[in-house]
Write the C-alpha cells for this entry.
Amino acid sequence: MTPIGQRGRLVILLLYLLGLIAASWFAVGSPIPPVTERGIWFYSALAALLLGNLLVTPFFTKPADAISYGVTALITMLAANVWGSAAVSGFDRFTWSIATMYVGLVLLAAIIAIAARDSARPFWQKVDRSCFIFADSLGAPRAVFSIIFFFALITYHRTAPREYITITLAWAVFVGLRPLEGAADLLRRWRAEWASKGGSARLGLVVGHEVPGVVLVREDGAAAVGFGDLLLARTEMGSVGIAVALDHVGFADGCWLRAFHLSHPQAAEQAAAQAGVNRAVLDGMVFLLADRDVAAPAVRDADDVKQRMLGLVAPDTTVGHLRVELVRSDLSLRQGSLVEVSVSSKAVLYQIIEGITHEEILQQKNTRGYVRAEGRKVGCWNEGLQNFDPVPWLPEPNQAVLLISEHTCTAEREAVGHFPGTSYPVRIDPHLLVTHNTAILGILGVGKSFLALELVERMIAAGIKVICLDLTDQYANELAPFFDATAERTSLDELAVVGPPGKTNCKQNVEEGGSIREFTAKVTEQLTAFLSADDQRKVKILNPVRFEVWQQVGRLYSGQASMATLTPPEVTRIITEATLSVLQSQGLADRARCCIVYEEAHAIIPEWNAVASEGDKTATNGTAKAILQGRKFGLGCLVVTQRTANVTKSILNQCNTVFGLRVYDATGMEFLKNYFGEDFSGVLSTLEDRHAVVFGRASSCRDPVLVRLNDRDQFLRSFRPPTPPSAEGGVSA
C-alpha cells in the first residue's frame, strides 16, 4: 500500500472519529460517552487511532513510545480496578489481571531495551535486541489499546447485546480493517493509471532514498525498465524529479530498481504536468517517460549517463582517492582508465588503479554482490596550459562517475606517453629530468631501454649534452644520427691505448703506478672538449667494460709489483668525477648541462651486497658523491636497471623522477612503494608492456599516474625532424 501523507492521515482520522461518534450515539445514546468505565472502549479506540497508524507513530514504535503507551494504559486499568467492586465476577477480575499483566510486560521490555542499549556484553546486547523487538511488536498503540478495549467490552457491555455488537463492529471497522486507508490507496492508483498521458506509464513506487541523488523504486509486477531509461520520481526533497534508471539491487515484495536523479527541476515539472501525474509522483509513484516528453537538456544529460556512466561515488572516498560502486559491466574498464567526476562544478579526472568485489545484505536474507573500483585523483584538465590543475576537495556521495571514452591516440612531440586509451598527454621537462635525477626500473623486455633512448633524445633537443655509459652497445646504433661514428671511434681508440701500458708501470709510490692517472687525464681532456660550449657534439657513448686500466695494488719489490685492472664500477667513477670536475670549472648553473646515463646500472653502480670486489664499494661511493654534488653545476643522471636490489640506494634515493615499469622482486616493489604509495605499487606486477607508473618533479602530473608510453617508431616519426640531423650539429631544440 502506498504511504499516505500527513494531511491525508489527518482527514482519515477525522472521518474515523465521526464514525466512532455515530457508533457511540447508536450504542449508548450519547455522541460522547461518559468518562467512566462505560466510556473506556471509546477513548481506547480514539487513542489507538490518534497514536497508531495515523499521526504520532504511523510506521514503527520505539521503546520510549512503548513506555508512554504502557503508562497511559496502566493508569486506565488501575482507575478501573475491578478487585474492589462486588458487582463484577471472578471472570472479570481474571480479564483485568491478564490485560494489566500484558501492559506491565510491555513496560518492562521497553525499560530493559533502553537500559541495556549501550552494553558491551554480548548477552545484554541480545537481551536489548529481544526486548526492542517485543516493544516494537506488542507495544504498538493498536495492540496496547486493543487489550484495554476488549477488557472494557467484555466487562461492561457483554450484558447489553446492542452495545456489545455495535462497539465490536465499530472497533473491527475503524481500528482493525482500516478501510479508508485501502480506499485512499485504490483511488490514488486509479488516478495515476487514468491520469497519465503521452508516453508515461506507471513503473512502481518509491521505497527509499540514498541521499543525495539516488532513489529506490519497487517495480510493479509487469513493469520492465532498462539502464538509461528516463523516469519521473519524487526526490529526497519531496519535489518532482527526472531520474535515469541504473541497476536492480534486490528483490523484496517486488523488484527494486535504483535510479539517479538529474538536476533539471523545471524539465521535471513540465514533464509531470504534461503527463498529468504531478500529484501521483509527489505521493510516491514512479512513471516511465519517453524521450520526446522531456526537454532537450535533460535528454542530453540522460544520453551522456547512458553512454558513459560507470557508477556512483561510494563511501570512504577521500580528497585524493576515489571509490566507485559500479552499476554496469558493459563498458571497457581496466587499470589505467580515466573517469570524470564533478567536484565543485569542475570536471575532475581520476585514474582507476584497482577493483574489489563487495557484498551487502538486503531484506529477507537476500545478498547483492557488486564491484567497487578505486582510483587516484589526477586533477582538472587545463586546456590552455595543457596540464592538470590540482583540485583540493572531494566529490559528493552518489555523484555520477563517467568513463572517459577510449580511442586510438598517436604520439605527440612533447608527450612521453598518454593516459591509456585517451588523448590526455603526460609531458616531461628534460631539464628537471637531469637536475633532479631520474630512474627507470623494470624487468627485462618491458621497454626500459627504448624509454631511456627517448629521454636522451629529448635532452639533446633541449640542449643538454649526454654521456651514455652503455654496456650493451645499443645506444651507439639507436643514436647514430647524433654523432660522428668515425670521430668517436678515434676518441675511443685514444682512451683504449692509454690503459694497457700501465700493467708494467711499477712505481715506488703505489699511487703513481699503473695507468689510472694517465687514463683519468685523457678522460678529463676529452670531456673538457666535449662539454665545451663551442663543441657541437651532443652525445658521447662509453663502455666501461672495454677499457683496460691498471692499478698498482702492492709495493715495489725487485722492480715488480702486484697489479690489477679496474672494474667497470671503478672506471664509471673516473668518468663521473671527471665530468663533475669539468662542469665545476665552468661555474654554477641553473639549468641542466650534462646527463650521465647509467645503462645496466646494477653492473656499474652496484649496491654494497652485490659488488664483485671491495674496491667497487669505494668506487660506487665516489660516483654517488659526484652525482650528489652535481646538481649545482648542471650535472645529473639517468639510472636504468632491471635489478633494483643490486643498484646502490645512495644514487637511487637521489632520483626525484621515477618510471616504474613491470617489476616482480620484493625489493623493487618496496622501493617503489616509497615513491608511488601502496595503491600504485600494487599494480606494478601486472603492468602491460610499454606501460609505466610515472611520478616526480619532471612529470607534468603532480601525482603518480599510470601511462601508456610512446612506441619507439611513433616517437621517431613525431620527434625527429624529416631530415636527420648531422653528426656535427645534433638536433635543434
